[in-house]
């Protein structure tokens, strides 16, 4: 017979004593134990590398103890905040540093999604239009043609070609006037406060104006040289002249840890490639942000005119359309509800930021900016009773390092959304599902049948967050937010921590 450890005996004694103090019969668990809020002080945690199925929690005390046990396994000293509340009653089940401010990363998209559903509605569509102040006669458009961009984050060059095709279907074969781009629906500042300069070359940090084409990104293809020391071959997916390259990278015979491949760019579409490319790795691909979308937009429009056999001479200008201009053709995006599916499941920053500016434009009836987008979001979400004066929101995607919110505010938002049937229906369809899809496809695969986690992830350097809904087997739906900041190194140990907490709560 194995000897029981002192630690095990002490824990059993404490549990036995606690049950007696709670008035629970010591012969078994009561099935009517009330849920009381548990407030936990800061814990210095340590993350273990493996995820083990938690033992089913029997009461709030064992739930909080289980979470404490998970947090006590953390090997570093990050800042951790957790809030868990009932979706039915709003009763707090567990709280640790829940009123502290944290950098949210992409869980901030939950605010953007709920505000957009509340104000714009699930059937909202972006509308890109062709307008003219002239008239069509004998296959000639006499007057100016204006393409009014709307900030549609899903707009592609194919859609522009289809728009111009609608113009051709009206019989137009020649334009006597100018071709103009109207990008006035959004302000001209492409980046919000708090974005890191190092990120701006990469697709997840694509700039945002009213002009969005092919997600304002492009791809490059790198082929190592056959001889070490030579430059790799570089090609891109955009037409010549849209971007300019300075290729300073070199091919190496072996991997060089101290010589990473880096790409820097400026607002004029100048890109510099430097560092080392190991020839043994073979061809490499990168997806980059198109820092200045305007040259590409002009190329797309001119190509669409040529494809549809419409003659035009002259430059393509930037000019707002007149109020008396006539709409000739329209392209509408997919409905907001469908757009949110990509935004939340794939954590699409461009969609989130465009919706953020669209809120400002629609709410205040003026060009959408980062500032009025934030102001509009806070006004729209006043029914949540969140104290927005006590947080900071600078973008719609969570990429700004200036953003600060609390776990308590996140769960307040999710509680409000849960009790708005139209919003809840869309959120439940668009949030990633643990172990099944989106950014949670490879996580929490040990969740049992009858238990489910639908949540939004967040990840940046030194930041890991998770917030959403947990469907428990015996206690209905619980709302949770886990926010972890101020750590060094990879995020994976902390996503494991989040997973273990969620699994423990799911078994509750």
Q: Please tally the β strands and state the result.
A: 22
Which structural class do you get from the secondary structure elements? alpha/beta
Number of domains: 3
Major beta-sheet overview: 6 strands, mixed
Percent helix among the residues? 25-40%
CATH superfamily of the largest domain: DD-peptidase/beta-lactamase superfamily
- Beta-strand content estimate: 15-25%
Q: How many helix segments?
A: 11
Mean pLDDT: 89
Major sheet: arrangement of strands: 1-3-2-22-21-20
The CATH topology name of the largest domain reads: Beta-lactamase
Q: What would you say the CATH architecture of the largest domain is? A: 3-Layer(aba) Sandwich
CATH class of the largest domain, anyone? Answer: Alpha Beta
């Amino acid at each position: 017979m194995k000897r029981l450890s002192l630690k095990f005996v002490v824990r059993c004694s404490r549990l036995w004593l606690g049950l007696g103090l709670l008035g629970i019969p010591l012969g078994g668990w009561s099935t009517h134990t009330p849920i009381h809020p548990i407030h936990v002080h800061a814990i210095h945690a340590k993350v273990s590398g493996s995820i083990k199925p938690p033992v089913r929690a029997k009461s709030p005390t064992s739930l909080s103890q289980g979470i404490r046990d998970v947090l006590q396994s953390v090997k570093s000293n990050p800042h951790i905040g957790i809030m868990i509340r009932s979706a039915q009653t709003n009763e707090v089940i567990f709280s640790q540093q829940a009123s502290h401010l944290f950098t949210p990363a992409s869980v901030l998209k939950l605010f953007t999604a709920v505000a957009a559903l509340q104000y714009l509605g699930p059937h909202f569509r972006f509308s890109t239009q062709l307008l003219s102040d002239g008239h069509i006669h004998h296959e000639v458009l006499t007057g100016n043609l204006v393409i009014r961009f709307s900030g549609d984050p899903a707009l592609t060059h194919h859609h522009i070609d289809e728009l111009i095709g609608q113009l051709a279907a009206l019989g137009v074969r020649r334009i006597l006037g100018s071709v103009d781009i109207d990008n006035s629906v959004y302000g001209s500042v492409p980046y919000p406060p708090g974005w890191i300069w190092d990120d701006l070359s990469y697709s997840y940090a694509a700039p945002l104006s009213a002009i969005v084409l092919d997600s304002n990104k492009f791809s490059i293809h790198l082929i190592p040289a056959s001889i070490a020391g030579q430059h790799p071959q570089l090609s891109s997916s955009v037409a010549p002249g849209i971007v300019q390259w300075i290729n300073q990278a070199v091919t190496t015979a072996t991997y060089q840890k101290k010589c990473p491949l880096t790409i820097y760019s400026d607002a004029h579409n100048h890109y510099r490639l430097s560092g080392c490319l190991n020839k043994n790795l073979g061809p490499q691909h990168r997806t980059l942000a198109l820092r200045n979308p305007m040259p590409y937009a002009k190329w797309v429009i001119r190509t669409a005119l040529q494809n549809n056999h419409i003659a035009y001479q002259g430059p393509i200008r930037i000019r707002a359309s007149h109020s008396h201009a006539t709409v000739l053709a329209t392209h509408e995006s997919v409905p907001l509800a469908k757009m949110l599916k990509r935004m939340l499941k794939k954590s699409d920053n461009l969609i989130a930021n465009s919706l953020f500016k669209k809120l400002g434009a629609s709410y205040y009836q003026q060009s959408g900016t980062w500032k009025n987008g934030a102001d509009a979001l806070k006004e729209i979400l006043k029914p949540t009773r969140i104290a927005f004066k006590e947080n900071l929101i600078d973008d719609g995607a969570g990429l700004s390092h200036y953003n600060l919110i609390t776990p308590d505010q996140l769960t307040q938002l999710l509680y409000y959304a849960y009790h708005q049937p139209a919003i809840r229906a869309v959120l439940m369809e668009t949030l990633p599902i643990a172990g099944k899809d989106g950014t949670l496809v490879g996580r929490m695969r040990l969740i049992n049948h009858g238990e489910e986690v639908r949540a939004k992830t967040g990840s940046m350097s030194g930041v890991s967050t998770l917030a959403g809904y947990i469907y428990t087997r015996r206690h209905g739906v619980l709302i949770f937010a886990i926010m972890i900041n101020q750590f060094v190194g990879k995020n994976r140990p902390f996503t494991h921590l989040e997973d273990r907490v969620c699994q423990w709560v799911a078994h509750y």
